[in-house]
Sequence to fold (823 residues):
Amino acid sequence: MKRRDFLKYGAAGLATAGAGLSPFESLAQTLTGTTDIKLGITDVETRLVDGNKVNMLGFRLYGGAGALATGRVPGPVLRVKEGSSVKITVTNDREEAHGFEITGVPGTKTEIAPGSSSTISFTAPVAGTYIYHDSLGDTPLYRILGLHGVLVVEPLNGVTSAGSRTPYSLDKLVPGSRTAVSALFDALGTTDRFQGGADGKWVPAPLNAEASIREKVWICAAIDPKFNALIERGKPIASSPNLTSNVVDNFVPSYFTINNRSGYDLHDDYDGMLPVIVKNYIGEPTLFRIVNVGLAHHANHFHGNHLMELARVDLNPKSSTYGQMIVPENIFEVDTTAMWPMQRRDLLLPLEIPPDIPYQIPVSSPTGGQFQRMVNKQAQEPFPLRYVMHCHTEMSQTAAGGNYPQGMVCHWEVLGGLGGRAKVAG
Amino acid sequence: MTSTTKTAGATAAIGGTLAAGEAATQTMPPLGPNSTAVPGPGDYNGGSIDFTRTGVKGKESFGNFGCDTFDGNPNTPDWTTANAYFVRTVQNVDVTMPDGKKLRCWGFGDPLKAPGRELLPSPLIRVQEGDLVHVKLQSSKGTHTIHHHGIEPTTFNDGVGHVSFEVKDDYVYQFQARHAGTFFYHCHKNTVTHFEMGLYGLLIVDPKPENGRVPAYAGGPFYDVEKFWVLDDMDPRWHQITNLDHDVGLCGDDAGLNIFEPKYFLISGTPTRPNVLVDKQKIVAKPGQKILIRLLNASYSVLQVMFEGLEVQVISVDGHALNKPWNQWLTIAPGTPFTLPTAQRYDILIDTGSPANQTKTGYTHKVHFEFQHWITRKVHNAGDKMYEGRAFTTITI
Fold:
């Protein structure tokens, strides 16, 4: 495999990202105060981490900016308020029929003939993370070719009795879940472990943004180029019943992505991309909304902090709550989380001081900890601390059959100690 | 190895206050109860570090992301004295598989405590909550690292090459164990192959003793019988190509590492065909006793687990006890299957005297494992007597 330089994104893009301007402002404005969303289905070309290119199908956002206007994989992150009326019109620019569905939301399934449009209207469901995708013919084919995105529903009553904001409508949870969610979000900023006072609380992303400092959306997927080879711009998708009659059994992916990037292409975020990397200070808890639209069973492992497993979908067909979103009464703290196909999980990265950095030095008669020495610039090891996140089902760490770790791996950063952002801002 | 092999002596430490001489004069504290060796002169690893030769300050590029990643033998930043000290080497270990073939695996060796003991899984690292731990890796067969999975130290001690460095000859990893629970350690170099080869072992952090006994975690339950169940699957093709080329696939060749077809299935390092149980796999307990199982999925399969006959309780997940205000023990009814993704740990308590279990004494109960394909979820090689991805062990009360 040829190696390549990372030249795709120019200095202009870097400058924008570095200045902290939101590349999503224009999208944001189109979504403000409206629940009338217009999407298109179109061709997208993706350059993989090794320089090879594949054809994909993507959603574009009418009124969006940059890649969102022309078509992007994944589709735009849509945010709506629970209980609001939502209208989504999907226009199909391709030469074959497509579908649209928001899994777990009744009345959202539709079909769109080539060159035409279809509109769905629904009431925004209970707060949580949803997947919209093309499920035409009940096959994952179009989903794995790129027609997927995330809908976030914000809660109406997400604030605990102690005043902490959460991602869930607390009045709609069973008492045990309400107690657990409240206990966790109330603990943020108020304990030795989760410091920061009022600034140490979780803050939701604005309704008009795809992501924020304390909230990221990760869409895990995998690419098997022989399926992408069926796509030709301007022509109906090639017929290959041998391949498409059983997509799962024929799927041998060789690229593994988050937000359609992998390996070195995930080492930082640039303008026009759905951001992935968390760069925060201690005491800035961050929510990940992670979904898996691919067909591989992933085991996402975070270094640096354990995460709290919030909502998930019950994917056990034998369960009485099969298909439902579960906000658990029992919130596990994990370093590895099961991301099975079509799983949607919310996980809280607490941004606590990585717990195993020596905290009592010397151990015989402690006088201090290393992290504080780092904050005081008295330590050798500098900030930022960079911790990887990767799938531990390690086949997903490859690209084109090798090239570890150019697969589903990224990282997150601890920029500094408590209150660091305020200090930097001066 | 001594500090004479260290790099970057001429470069000033960045922000360093622990100059080499200062650190060297620190006195060694008393040895922790679970350490395998007294820290000695070989443990000293302080001094200056050139972070620009590592992923910390080095310029990241496509080339050094995996193929030509940072390597060296740096000093340990902010080195301080430890009270638990371990050494790990890299060894060959050949395992005879049920079809009579020998499979080349790699394991971490322990030259200090018990050379020659079993290497698959690699020797246990067991420390006590609060221990300041040093693990010295002595690489061979090219570079390696150790990532202490679930332990959360600084980046330099986390064992990931492209954000820090891979170890050419030796390095002393440093961390202080905060949470009592079940962790593991593994090589994080070309992890897709090195983890598959067997470069992993359990890491257990015990809480401090309470009234002379050690519970599962501080304030947690005491247990009478402890067992480690580490589940693994092996694809012989992977072992062949990795043994030939320790860097297989790294710099661009298609080694087929996106395709994993395991033929051998192991419980705690012993193959499960024929399913004749050895002592380290099966549990024998007396009525009324409490059993603690530390379960790790070290395979590349979706692992389905099912306890026949017994009610079990998950008391800790990934080394974090279920004793927080937002969680509690999870009770799993007899015969209910559950799944574990790769690398997850469950600490499972079985109270043989509980109302649900006390009528189950005098029996042997099976525990079933299914290794399911990471895409299709089908059991590997279903129906094949030699290579089927099913296994069991037993609990006798």
User: Anything to note?
Assistant: Confidence is low (pLDDT under 50) at residues 1-33 of chain A.
